[in-house]
């Protein structure tokens, strides 16, 4: 079983790097703007023209650090990894004075093996965030898009970072930095269940087959996976076997429909990893899913070619809106924030939101709520409204981003 130490619960401090400014308490996940505001070191960024007084923040480097002790239970495992779900953005990671890694992409999560660098007692973990402004002024200078409508300074496309931080027609320019998603230690031995891919087959018989492809890290003896599908606490289907694709058949499925088209029943899908056919699970994975099929229908018609979405065999008129980040500082968002606005979309008779490419890949809460409320998601990759570089390093970073997402 994977053991976890949530580092966001440790005491964090931050400061402007390369200055004599004191270390102050920080919130992680978070960002430098909200930490500065909490200490009353800057005025409200959204009042009047205060935005103009805060442009110095993007020109500075910032540091975050914490001290932590690793419990003995974690130290006894074969793998001890530092997991960072999101770093914004030009980050250098140091543990006990040794550099672990560097990152230049806000949209990629990381997992680093750090067991050899840990000490028995207190450990110091530091993140140095370089200036976003300085990065775009010193990298890929040959990349000059013909038009950058929303970046008054220019160059923002040279860095894989939330584009609307650099200013948009609806957004102030607040280029921030920080640990914007979860940060933790994970310790494990043998094998772990890192993820699962779920596919569905809706045949003509009225039954639905759910295929589960577990993703396993490490190795073990006699590994076996077990999957179970429940609806409102009642077992609907189950399957087990050696590591590989598991098939669950739902004989009398309750289908998920977009808002206004029907109900949104959600099944609980759980996957367990077992070793040597024991009843004790080595690792577990869980998600809520809707049983549904969706295709883009582009058949020839009297006007040329159709363009319609067919859900569960029924053509659906898609109606919705563009989804931008709920706040300029996305690290503080909660499920409650998402629920407020997504419920408003359904109340306005929408059945789809287009997740716009100038913001962020949203949290699991966002997608789960869309399932719950009957909202289709038209998902962009995070590229919007301009041209982007195509040098080898940039393309490699984009590929890592796409694979991670």
Concise summary:
With 405 residues, the chain is mainly β. It has helices at residues 32-38, 50-53, 72-75, 132-138, 335-347, 364-373, 392-404; strands at residues 3-6, 12-16, 24-26, 62-69, 79-84, 87-88, 91-95, 98-103, 110-113, 122-129, 178-179, 183-188, 191-202, 208-218, 224-231, 234-242, 246-250, 267-274, 281-289, 294-297, 300-301, 304-305, 308-311, 314-316, 320-323, 352-355, 376-379.
Task: Provide a descriptive summary of the structure in words.
This protein is mainly beta and 405 residues long. Helices cover 14% and strands 37% of the residues. The protein is built from seven helices and 27 strands. Strand 13 and strand 14 form a beta hairpin. Helix 5 (335-347) packs parallel to helix 6 (364-373). The mean pLDDT is 95.
Indicate the percent of residues in helices: 10-25%
Q: What radius of gyration results from the CA coordinates?
A: 24 Å
Gross morphology:
globular
Query: What structural category do the secondary elements indicate?
Result: mainly beta
As a percent range, the share of strand residues is 35-45%
Question: What spatial order of strands do you see in the largest sheet?
Answer: 3-2-4-10-7-8
Low-confidence stretches: none
Q: Termini, distance in Å?
A: 24 Å
The total count of strands amounts to: 27
Largest sheet, in brief, is:
6 strands, antiparallel
Q: Look at the structure and give the mean pLDDT.
A: 95
Helical segment tally?
7
């Amino acid at each position: 079983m994977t053991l976890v130490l949530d580092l966001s619960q440790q005491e964090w401090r931050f400061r402007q790097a390369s200055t004599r400014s004191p270390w102050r308490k920080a919130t992680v996940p978070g960002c430098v703007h909200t930490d500065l505001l909490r200490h009353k070191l800057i005025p409200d960024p959204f009042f009047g023209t205060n935005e103009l007084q805060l442009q110095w923040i993007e020109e500075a480097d910032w540091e975050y650090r914490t001290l932590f002790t690793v419990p003995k239970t974690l130290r006894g495992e074969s793998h001890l990894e530092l997991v960072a779900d999101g770093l914004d953005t030009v980050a250098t990671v140091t543990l006990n004075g040794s550099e672990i890694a560097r990152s230049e992409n806000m949209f990629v999560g990381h997992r680093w093996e750090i067991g050899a660098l840990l000490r028995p007692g207190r450990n110091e973990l530091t993140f140095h965030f370089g200036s976003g402004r300085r990065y775009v002024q010193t990298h890929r200078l040959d990349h000059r898009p013909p038009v950058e409508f929303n970046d008054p300074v220019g160059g923002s496309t040279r860095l894989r970072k939330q584009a609307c931080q650099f200013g948009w027609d609806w957004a102030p320019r607040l280029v921030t930095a920080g640990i914007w998603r979860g940060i933790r230690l994970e310790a494990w031995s043998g094998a772990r269940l890192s993820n699962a891919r779920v596919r569905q087959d809706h045949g003509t018989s009225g039954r639905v087959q759910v295929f589960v492809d577990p993703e396993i890290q490490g190795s073990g003896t006699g590994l076996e996976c077990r999957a179970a599908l429940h609806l409102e606490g009642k077992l609907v289907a189950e399957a087990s076997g050696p590591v590989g694709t598991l098939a669950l058949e739902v004989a009398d499925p309750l289908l998920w429909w977009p808002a206004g088209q029907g109900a949104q029943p959600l099944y609980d899908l759980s996957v367990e990893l077992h070793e040597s056919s024991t009843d004790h699970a080595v690792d577990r994975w869980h998600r809520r899913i809707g049983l549904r099929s969706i295709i883009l229908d582009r058949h020839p018609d009297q006007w040329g070619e159709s363009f319609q979405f067919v859900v569960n065999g029924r053509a659906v008129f898609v109606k919705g809106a563009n989804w931008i980040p709920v706040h300029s500082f996305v690290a503080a968002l909660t499920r409650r924030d998402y629920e407020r606005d997504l419920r408003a979309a359904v109340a306005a008779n929408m059945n789809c939101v287009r997740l716009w490419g100038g913001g962020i890949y949203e949290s699991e809460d966002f997608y789960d709520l869309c399932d719950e409320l009957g909202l289709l998601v038209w998902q962009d990759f995070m590229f919007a409204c301009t041209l982007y570089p195509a040098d080898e390093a940039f393309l490699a970073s984009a590929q890592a981003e796409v694979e991670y997402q």
